[in-house]
Amino acid sequence: MRTMPFNKSRLGKVVIVSMLLVLFTASAVLAAPPEAIYYGNANSQVVKADYAAAIEAATEGDLVMLLAIKNALKAAQDNFRVIVIVTTDDKIVDWASALDDGLSFALSQTNSNYWLTVIPTPVLFIQPDGTEGAQDPGSGGNGDDFIVVSIE
């Protein structure tokens, strides 16, 4: 039986190219997902959206909060308002500036020019029903001070 010739040079090149591809794409693959998103609304108020909770609800079939966040972010982006994203590895990313400069979310996490040291102080919070309210849904409050503001 005849064996196939083994070309070490070709195999070496394939291995090197593969390793380079892994190194060049590692930053995008290893990007941390958003945990919370802060954005400016039409009334110039900072709103906090618990993105992790919205994703969890979406996996259970409830897309209301996730769609509200998507629509609010689109409005913030279209109107050049603040958008700050806190990732699960605690990076605070100035997403509005990164978008203006054409960066992907993954690249904005690797570029310290877009990192902040302070999280904006929210006045309102995205509620599970998709509205903006004064009660933080994650705080466990009794809701007595709940105010509803519609999302544009």
Structure characterization notes:
The chain is α+β, with helices and mostly antiparallel strands and 152 residues long. The chain has one domain. 38% of the residues lie in helices and 17% in strands. It is built from five helices and seven strands, in the order H-E-E-H-H-E-E-H-H-E-E-E. A seven-stranded mixed sheet has the order 4-3-1-2-5-6-7. A hairpin with a 5-residue loop joins strand 5 and strand 6 (132-133). Helix 2 packs across helix 3 (64-78). The model is unreliable at 23-28 and 141-152 (pLDDT under 50).
Average pLDDT works out at 81
Order of helices and strands: HEEHHEEHHEEE
Radius of gyration: 21 Å
Low-pLDDT segments: 23-28, 141-152
Instruction: Give the structural class.
Output: alpha+beta
Order of strands across the widest beta sheet?
4-3-1-2-5-6-7
* Number of separate domains: 1
Please supply descriptive tags for the structure shown above.
152 residues; globular; 5 helices; 7-stranded mixed sheet; alpha+beta
Concise account of the structure shown:
This protein is of the alpha+beta class and 152 residues long.
Topology, element by element:
Layout: H1 8-29, E1 34-40, E2 46-49, H2 51-59, H3 64-78, E3 83-87, E4 92-94, H4 95-100, H5 105-110, E5 124-126, E6 132-133, E7 148-149
Parallel strand pairs: 2-5
Antiparallel strand pairs: 1-2, 1-3, 3-4, 5-6, 6-7
Helix pairs in contact: 2-3
